[in-house]
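User: Quick sanity check before I run a bigger batch. Here is a single chain. Can you write out its predicted 3D structure?
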Amino acid sequence: MDPNEALRRIAFLLEWRGASPYRVRAFHTAADAARELPPGPVDAAQAERLRGVGPVTAEVIAQASGGSVPGYLARLMAEADPDARAGWDLATASTGDCHLHSDWSDGGSPLEDMADAARAMGHQWAVLTDHSPRLTIAHGLSTERLESQLEAVAAVNARMGSGFRLLTGIECDILDDGSLDQDEDLLGRLDLVVASVHSKLRSEPEPMTARLLAAVRNPHVDVLGHCTGRIITGRGRPQSRFDPRPCSRRAPRPGPRWRSTAGRRRDPPDDLLVQTAAEGCRFAVDTDAHAPNTHWQSTGYARGTDRPGPGPADHDLVARSAADDDERQTVNHSPSAPSRPAQGCRLRQTGETPRAAGAGEAIGSCPTGPARTPMEATWDTAGMSSTS
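Assistant: Done. Predicted structure follows.
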């Protein structure tokens, strides 16, 4: 066990136990810093000189780098139940991240830096999902700017070569009538569309239900983001009221995945997460990262098995190795870039029943399959949702 794995697993188990998000973040921050250390044993004093590493995390680094299981981790593992192990297995099997932002909208870093950070985390792919034009406070992308971003993504992929792919996407506002805040033809060219409500969150249940249902019926929508809009930290924000049953039952056609966040949102709430899982919904686990140091998904997976009902392999999304899919799948690119087989994950849009991970497969945060056909229902489960 290396220091990075030890620190990530501690963060996961702390989240599982309901520890403070700040405490969880401290171990993730230390794991990021530990990547700068050379291989081999490191003493605690040397580790503590790293930015973001304190006495506790330095001791974890020292013990793990010496080849032993840190005492802090051993205690948490001894107290964890079998579901915690299942959740960790989901986290370590993930191959990508299907929700992140760049400075094209409200992220803090260039898309190149976000892609580099995702690859440094061990991901094979990530989806860029900047905001749509109506969200002016987040500098949402007009049709013209989104067209330009597709070309920028193609350039990043050309630079990064094989082993990682940045996919195209958007976090699209759901308008008052349930329509989407972007050109339909352009949405059809993207690899992934997250649809989220950012306005009139305190509407009456009937119009909010109609709004969400119209959105999930849109054939371009792959993921329903932070469905209740609640925030549980700081001053907080109450959750929107709506009837989840029509959305989760996907009438009259398979609908999108639902995103369930950890961190400051924990959305859907636990009772709604259980209810929708029982209805057969699937869940996208991702980060909603707005900066390179927030590519942490393990906290989202802590919620993936912490509920009754069918097991995680029945409801969470599957990421397959590219070798299984390149023969039958392509990615949509900008007009200037020819469509070609993907080198990362492909999005499952077939409604095919997911299964447990086997050889060359992993339970992950984004599904595979032929592009741009109706999907099974899925909610988004972001690990560290940081902004709207």
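Residues 195 and 295 are 21 Å apart (CA to CA).

User: Great, the batch can go ahead then.
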